[in-house]
From TrEMBL:
This is Spore coat protein U domain-containing protein. The keyword Signal applies. It comes from the Bacteria. The keyword Signal applies. It comes from Pseudoalteromonas luteoviolacea S4060-1. Residues 1-22 form the signal peptide. Keywords: Signal.
Length: 288
């Protein structure tokens, strides 16, 4: 009888031991990686910087056993975003916007909390050319360099068509105003007098330009029937004050300021009533 009991105890120990070791080595749980486009951060300084969010959430069981989060590009050793004109290379930052180290194409971060915030940084020397920028990454939760769970995640940044207009440097002493509203004082009006100025347009897309006169000439401030014709030459195209100019410009890679010149020439002022004359000349840029 003693022999039977002794044998049973040894067998029970040998059968139970592997189960205990399996529980010690086991690591399991759930992970969710997301990227919300509404949380994208844009910074406009000397160059444009974009931060695309990645948020990783893990279950308590996974937090207790895993030790790292890995992020890697699906296709390349670098993190690459395809864009409308060229590919952009990204870098990965932690929640405090500190650079995460990369080794052999894998960005590694310690797993410390149930929720981890990361930021993918894209940068351009000027406005991003308009369009969608898309990257594809794999987010993994790891224990001892073994992947426990992973998820494929698409990242997207959309650059809206934008345009900015400013005076050229040579015009700042002759033209007053700011923020799109400018004033030119022609002084005493003389027949055929001329005035030149220029503007700079910065755009990340193709655009249309419309130049138009509100009064179809310089109008007397009280005698609205008194009108002095003039002509405008814009980008080597001339129109009369009663006309309307419409030009289309296509976008080419490399966003930079483009200069456009205006040349104003007054018509005949003989026998016109004395007084102050004014017109509102508009230049409107429509990105497309």
């Amino acid at each position: 009888m003693k022999s039977v009991i002794y044998t049973w105890l040894i067998l029970s120990f040998l059968l139970a031991a592997p189960k205990a070791m399996a529980r010690w080595n086991d690591c399991y749980g759930s992970m969710l990686a997301t990227s919300n486009p509404s949380e994208i951060i844009e910074e406009h300084n000397n160059r444009v910087t974009v931060y695309i969010p990645i948020k990783i959430k893990v279950s308590d069981s996974l937090l207790d056993c895993a030790d790292e989060i890995w992020v890697e590009d699906v296709y390349y050793y670098s993190m690459v975003f395809s864009g409308p004109t060229q590919d952009k290379y990204a870098k990965l930052y932690d929640s405090q916007f500190k650079k995460i180290k990369v080794r052999n194409g894998i960005w590694r971060s310690d797993l410390k909390d149930r929720s981890t915030q990361m930021w993918v940084r894209l940068r351009h020397y000027s406005l991003f050319p308009a369009g969608a920028y898309t990257g594809h990454v794999i987010v993994s939760v790891v224990k001892n360099n073994e992947i426990i769970d992973e998820q494929y995640l698409d990242l997207t940044y959309y650059s809206e068509p934008q345009v900015a207009i400013s005076l050229s440097n040579s015009s700042k002493g002759k033209v007053s105003g700011s923020n799109g509203n400018y004033h030119i004082d022609l002084g005493e009006l003389k027949s055929n007098m001329r005035f030149n100025w220029g503007i700079k347009i910065l755009s990340n897309s193709s655009y249309d330009i419309v130049v138009d006169s509100e009064y179809n000439g310089l109008r007397h401030e009280t005698n609205t029937q008194a009108l002095i014709d003039y002509s405008i030459r814009f980008d080597n195209t001339q129109i009369s004050s009663s006309g309307r100019l419409h030009r289309s410009y296509n976008f080419y890679p490399g966003v930079k300021n483009k200069w456009y010149g205006f040349e104003f020439q007054l018509g005949n002022v003989e026998l016109m009533p004395a007084g102050t004359y004014q017109d509102n000349l508009s230049l409107t840029v429509y990105p497309r």
